[in-house]
Amino acid sequence: MANNATKPTKIFIVEDERPIARLLQLTLEREGFKTASEPNGRRAYERILQEKYDLVLLDVMLPEMDGMEICKRVREVSDVPIIMLTARDEIKDKVEGLDLGADDYMTKPFAAPELLARIRGALRRHNDRVREAEETRYVVKNMILYPERYEVTVKGVPVELTHKEYELLKYLVENKRNVLSRDQILQTVWGYDYIGDTNVVDVYISYLRTKIDDKFGEKYIYTTRGVGYAIRD
Ligand code: CA
Fold first, then answer.
1. Which of residues 112, 134, 156 is at a domain's end?
2. At 188, is the secondary structure helix, strand, or coil?
3. What does the pLDDT look like over 24-37, one tens digit per residue?
4. Residue 20 Cα to ligand 1 middle (Å)
5. What is the CA(172)–ligand 1 centre distance, in A?
6. Are 174 and 217 in contact (CB under 8 A)?
């Protein structure tokens, strides 16, 4: 994990112009980053695959393999953040670099504060992606339920649910495709000691249908007559 207190963030500088590489190294190390550098394109590509870097600063024009090719090849196997370093006004390079999966680009010569801001931005976005990928989520059609966040979205739009509505939906989603009886739902969502009308399940199913199926014009909750309810893709 980048940017944590116990392990310094390792940045790989791929640049064949020594003075620039040296300047980058000094700037980054002064900020507490660990650096390694490599002037040769092909070796840089091999080192990116073999060693574990938190971010790569990648020059475009390099001997043996150019930055575009490196970026394209690395992206086939790794999502390490890559910031392309391009000569001034090489707009085409910028666009191409981003198309190949680079996270950002900088035109040379660059000011240290801007470079550092872009590095921190790329690291932060990468960490967010990693965290999001690790997060538990249930997906049904266009609906995503995030149990850790207590959040439900349909087509990216948050759905406002009461506590019981959320618990009911979560139970259905956790058992996607299975038909759950009213009794099962009552016991799990309302508890064994619930004394009240068993109609409460039907009432809450109708609340969910209003807030999800009807609102987004897509069928999620199915009734199996005489048995119970299920949520399906
Ligand atoms: Ca170069």
1. 134
2. helix
3. 999 999 999 999 99
4. 9
5. 57
6. no
